[in-house]
Amino acid sequence: MQSFHLTATGHNLNYLPEYIARRHGFFQEQGLNVTVSIPTPWDGVLDALADGTADMALGGIWVPAMYRDRVTDYTVFAQIANRCPLALLRRGHQANFKLDDVAGKTVLMKSGGGASVGLFFKMLLRENNIDPRSVDYIQDLDGVMLGNLFEGGMGDYFVTDNLSARAMAERNPDISVGMEMVSQGDIPWSVYYRESATITPEVFDAHRRFCIGLGKGIEWVLKHDAESYRDELGELFPNIPVEVAITVTNTFRREGMWTTPTIPRHAFDRWQLGLADARLVKEPFAYEALVNEPATMA
To answer: What are the residue boundaries of the SsuA/THI5-like domain, all occurrences included (predicted)?
Structure first.
């Protein structure tokens, strides 16, 4: 059995098929003993790639794009999350919420896990012809801190992960979910990558086998209603009410969070435009500049 170590930026519901693949033996079927570590702070994933203690990193594709031709070149070889796993919380339960309701208001956005939250939300505003400058942001604080402050009265809206948003709305009758962003189109939200210079034929073959196991994990999740493995969800996410985890999992299944390990070109191009508009990259990268997918060789 070949050791294969993953360094990840967090433990999230949108990574569920990977957890299922590990727990159900799909990686072992490919001869891989997959282990995981989550560094604090999250950018320790880059250190683990640099010193060779990790075979790959899991996180946002904006990092390989931002670093390309500036610091270190990374190659992306698969995705796990095909949609954005965020939600927008609001005060009250007004009907017919519209995204342009946020104009002129204050939006809290967690940033402890990187820049993805602000990048996506502002891109979504631009895509809907809403000037991001028409909104005030509080986004340089930890997500738990911002959640407590939002419940305490700070701001008008709060962008956080869907699971936390649903849990907050369940326990606080004065707060509701205005938008689940999983419904807002394809985007390669969470991807696997490695330093390009370290990829050998042997490494690429291990990536290929990892992608086969990951694909089986995705297929399993798509075939099984979350209610049928509530105990497993409870073990994976013990701090979230299991009914919330079940509801969000089934929403993700229905809305296209998980498809295949292959990154769709249209989704890649959409996110690259968003990163360029945010000035993280000078101009959008071509697909082949960042992506080399052994998933297509399964």
So the answer is: 12-138
| 30/211 Cα distance (integer angstroms) | 10
- What per-residue confidence (pLDDT) applies to 112? 63
**CB-facing half-sphere around the CA of 122: CA atoms within 13 A:** 21
**Phi and psi angles of residue 139, each rounded to the nearest 5 degrees, phi first:** -145, 10
For 29-52, give the DSSP string.
Answer: GGTEEEEEE--SSTTHHHHHHHTT
Reported pTM? 0.94
269, containing H or E segment: helix 265-277
Cα-based distances in Å from 248 to 100, 113, 242: 25, 20, 10
Residues of the chain with pLDDT under 70: 112-113, 295-298
- Nearest partner of 127 among 287, 270, 286, judged by Cα: 270
Query: Locate tokens 């869907």: which residue?
Result: 162
Domains assigned to the chain: 2-83+186-297 (3.40.190.10), 86-183 (3.40.190.10)
**Helices 116-127/265-277 angle, 10° precision:** 100
CA 139 vs CA 115, 147, 198: distances in Å: 9, 11, 35
Residues 255, 26: Cα–Cα separation, whole Å: 24
Cα gap 14→87, rounded to integer Å: 13
